Amino acid sequence: MGIPTFNEKIITPKKHAETIKTQQIQNGKWELTADVVIIGSGAGGAVAARELAKNGWKVVLIEEGSYFTPAQFNSDEFLSQARLYRDAGFIVTEEQTLSILQGKSIGGSTTVNWQTSLYPPDYVTNEWNERFGWQGYSREEMDPFVSEVHERLGVHEVPDNLINANNNVLRVGGKKLGLTPLVLRNNNRGCIGLGRCGLGCPINAKQSTFLTWIPDAIEAGATVVSNMRAVKIRDGKIKTVVAEFTPDAYEKAPSEIIETMEIKAPVVIVSAGAIEGPALLQRSGIGNGWVGRNLKVHPTSTIFGKFDSEIKMFQGPPQSIVIKDGHNQNGTGYGYWLEAAPYRPTLASSLVPFYGKQQFDVMKDFTKYNAGIVLVRDGADGEANASVKYSLGRRKVYFELTPTDGLNMLKGLKSLAEVTVAAGAKELIFPFTRFTEPYKVTGNDNFDWILKESTRPGDLTVGSAHPHGSIQSANDPEKGAVDLNLEIYGHKNIFVMDASVYPTGLSVNPQITTMSIVLRASRNLASQKEERTKV
């Protein structure tokens, strides 16, 4: 697939000189007006931009990251992580208890995600309704929006010939144990299994927002600007978003650049993600005490299994099998699920808890290892012990596993160990830092001991690729930061439309749900143009 022709209108640093001339910009400061400013171009911002522009709104969307075409996507992990991910792929919490992966480019995390396309089960959406007043979000009730998203992204089940050896470990081992491995849906058109999703799809098969909703928005008249970081939102009847130029780390900036933007509009939509969104609102003095609180991350841990045959976990679609049997522990709606991870050597070596020769010996046999992951729906104890705070000029993230979430992680690791051994693994590398060498499989293995392991910070390696819920929505400002229309309490016409708004742990990979709820919310907002944009 080719690059949409409308993407040629994205204002990148290379177009600054031309824009300065045509817009008569003075002293590097671009002042412009719009009906709405959207901050962020991922699963939330891109959908909102398309929907509002299509309905006649004058839309300006800014994105901190750069715009990349598939010709710039390559298999160099260091380069790709530095350019396509926030903090080069390692958003590390203040006490080094968690490392978070999050995208940063035109397309946000949709450019680098692993395509998994799911919507939460009813026990999750029922909890949203009962505790937070979120009505009408069951899969059945949301079907018009979910189906529209599926159609735009080409969502379909992964064909059997593309289920790779890494994912097949879950299918084979799960079936042997009487579990129910399910084939996942992915969002692509023409995937051939290159396995490069996390580094950007070089053949435009994965339907990231820069191939879908963004060109749709531009076609409808939206202005999209890359490499612009929102510094502050000034509230008022007319809001002002102040943004500053953020150069790409690996590309020399042109000699003539737009240094800052000041965009005035009656409506602002924050779609900056669950890490940067709260930080932006906090430094702008916007929102109540729920901004940045109760960050959910789907805490994730890995077991590597060594097999006699080649696995090459990085080849093929990253995620094609899921095991959800542990999803709903004791009818609570909380628990864990098992997926596979397509780690490449850099990321894999950072997750192997050994040092020196022991680590090198593992990496020498890297192609024979699979990687299964446990993901936990956090919040089983009522609120996640995680937050985002902007202080002393810096965004800070805090995280610690709560007791029940920790127990669910251990239950998941026990199940994953059993599945991996049932599939034929000869050695396991556990994420417990007390281990100094791989665990040798004997054939008479009992993994009950895992349930007694420590989940204290430093004892268990935990990561995340799903930050969400840090600006949660509820029917009462005592329970959330934004209302049921996703408008920030106490701040008319400032909305949050991205994965930040979930009031509980989501329990599934966030992309489809985020696009669906933002499609619903932005369509509702679009119908109020006259009322919302009247000055």
Strand order of the largest sheet: 9-3-2-13-23
Radius of gyration: 23 Å
Count of discrete alpha- or pi-helical segments spanning 4 or more residues: 13
CATH architecture title of the largest domain: 3-Layer(bba) Sandwich
- Tell me the structural class: alpha/beta
Q: Using DSSP, what is the number of strands?
A: 23
Helical fraction equals 25-40%
Uncertain regions spanning at least 5 consecutive residues = none
Fill in the CATH topology of the largest domain. FAD/NAD(P)-binding domain
The CATH top-level class label of the largest domain: Alpha Beta
Head-to-tail CA distance between termini = 43 Å
Please indicate the count of domains. Answer: 2
Q: Say which CATH homologous superfamily of the largest domain is assigned.
A: FAD/NAD(P)-binding domain
Broad shape: globular
| Amount of beta strand | 15-25%
Average pLDDT across residues?
97
- Major sheet: 5 strands, parallel
Domain FAD dependent oxidoreductase: 35-68
Domain Glucose-methanol-choline oxidoreductase C-terminal: 400-516
Protein name: Putative oxidoreductase, GMC family
Family: Belongs to the GMC oxidoreductase family.
